[in-house]
Amino acid sequence: MRVTIKLFATFRDGRFKVEERELPTGSKVLNILEPLNIKPEEVAICLVNGRDVNAQHLLNDGDTIALFPPVGGG
């Protein structure tokens, strides 16, 4: 199956902004995080097709995954 991954803020550092990937059927969000060296606890917001999910969410062909780290400011 093919999914689109969008990284935001510091997750883009040394990685990419948007990328399409081919994944085996039955893949979860966790299967995207591992090769990117992103720990599930580092993800503040994970959206699949605009809906909030966790790292165990089962992905489908054509899904768009958006990953956001915690954002600080002052």
UniProtKB/TrEMBL annotation:
It comes from Desulfosporosinus meridiei (strain ATCC BAA-275 / DSM 13257 / KCTC 12902 / NCIMB 13706 / S10). CDD domains: Ubl_MoaD_like (cd17040). This is Molybdopterin converting factor, small subunit. Pfam families: ThiS.
